[in-house]
Amino acid sequence: MRERVVIIGAGGFAREVQDVLEACDDRFQLEGFVVEKGHGREGDLVNERPILGDLAWLEARSQEFSSICAVGSPFVRRRLVETVARSGVRFTSALHPSVRSTRWVEIGEGSVVCAGAVLSNRIRISSHVHVNPSCTIGHDCSLDAFSALAPGVLLSGNVAVGSGAYLGTGACVIEKKMIGPWSIVGAGSVVIRDVPSNSTVVGNPARVIK
Questions:
Q1: Is the separation of the CB atoms in 5 and 24 below 8 Å?
Q2: Contact (CB, 8 A) for 179 and 197
Q3: 29-43, 78-92, 195-209: lowest mean pLDDT where?
Q4: How many CB atoms lie within 10 A of CB 145?
Q5: In sequence order, what DSSP letters do the residues of 179-200 get, joined into one string?
Q6: Residue 139 to residues 18, 40, 41, 63, 125, Cα–Cα distance (Å)
Q7: For residues 19 and 40, what is the distance between their CA atoms, to the nearest angstrom?
Q8: 182, 175, 176: which is closest to 197 by C-alpha?
Q9: What gap in Å lies between CA 62 and CA 60, rounded to an integer?
Q10: pLDDT digits (tens, 9 = 90+) for 67-80
């Protein structure tokens, strides 16, 4: 029996998560989307799938469905996950069939890995992590909860990405560096030093600007 799944959110990344789930059609049955109040109307279609209701709709049916929170902002994603988790909502994880991975990769609940990603050896992806298309994650990397890699991010070996950190499109991190929790790495940046927590870095080499 396929796992019945509801996506939290109905924006651009939610549609990409829909692509992942539908590509895994033998495992998942996508029921539709749920949104915060004011972010969509019940019954509206998103890529031919309905908006089922708001978060209360999902909370009232916590035993019927699994879910993935597909909201891009790490801060908002954490808030939404914590809100519905209090009602017993369960989370699932999903990898697009085109992902190149090994049995030495650990993926936590609520995380999603999109098409074309390459996951090497001894990688730990924690809960509610987003790995966008065409990312490469080297050996012995760790991605903590609610972090996110935008398309085309390259992580060399032994990189640690802290909780809630966001790495922009095409960012590159050399080996054995740490990206601090809730930090932002700008698109195209090349990280050659550890990134402090709660900071923003940009450039080649990346430097702190905030």
A1: no
A2: no
A3: 29-43
A4: 21
A5: E-TT-EE-TT-EE-SPBPTT-E
A6: 28, 40, 43, 37, 12
A7: 20
A8: 182
A9: 6
A10: 999 999 999 999 99
